[in-house]
Amino acid sequence: MAEPSVAPGARLMLIWSLGAPREAAGADACLSAGDVAAVILRPGTLAGDALRERLEAVVPAIQAHGAAALLDGSADAVSASGLDGAHVRAATDALKATLGALKPQFIVGTGPLPGRHEAMEAGEAGVDYVLFGPLDPAPEDFPRTVSLAFWWAELFEVPCVAVASTLDEVEALALARADFVALAEPLASDPARIAEAQARMEAALDTAEMTGDGAGQPS
Questions:
Q1: Predicted model pTM
Q2: What's the rounded mean pLDDT across residues 51-57?
Q3: Is residue 126 part of a domain?
């Protein structure tokens, strides 16, 4: 099973919708464009055989690149479809049930978490990562996302994922020391922009290291 391992600095995650078929070549190009640790797959209204067929088409491509394939919103199809884990957007009781069903064999992460209290509860429950920011973010969501990522990274060991919808946001989250920066659509489906996100993230961290600035508190 692929694990979204934490590296110095930050790694990328991708958020993909399963609502439309994704060509293998396109998926391969996206996964080759950066250091992608995991992909969160959003099924939308797909269920049953339709969901299973869509997963069978994309999960092997993700895993072939050493990335983890995580299904958003449901634990039921994880083992049957060869996924690496689940991303849970649920209340505490549902999260605990998913952890009990899937851990330790599978990855379980959760988010978006609206505040510090909910994030600490999730961390204490035993998740593999906490995620800040909606999976389909609006521009006004970002100040809270980067603030929570900075706070979490300073204090806790459980890996932090933060969602970006622009290249400027990618850079800011890397400087906030998020362990993973998750690219939302349409950024996550454009190989050129994924490559640019990777380059900007690395450049920002290299500059911070050279100047001794380190992570900065978001304004």
A1: 0.92
A2: 91
A3: yes
39: Cα within 13 Å, side-chain hemisphere: 29
Is 42 within the bounds of a domain? yes
Q: Whole-angstrom Cα distance, residue 188 to residue 18?
A: 13
According to the model, what pLDDT value does residue 33 have? 97
Unique residue bearing structure tokens 């995580």: 70
d(CA 41, CA 16): 5
Boundaries of domain holding 172: 11-211
Round to whole Å and give the CA distance between 6 and 195.
19
- 115/204 Cα distance (integer angstroms): 27
The pair phi, psi for residue 186, each rounded to 5°, is: -85, 0
CATH number at residue 40: 3.20.20.70
Q: Is 43 in contact with 214 (CB distance < 8 Å)? A: no
**What is the identity of the amino acid at 162?**
A
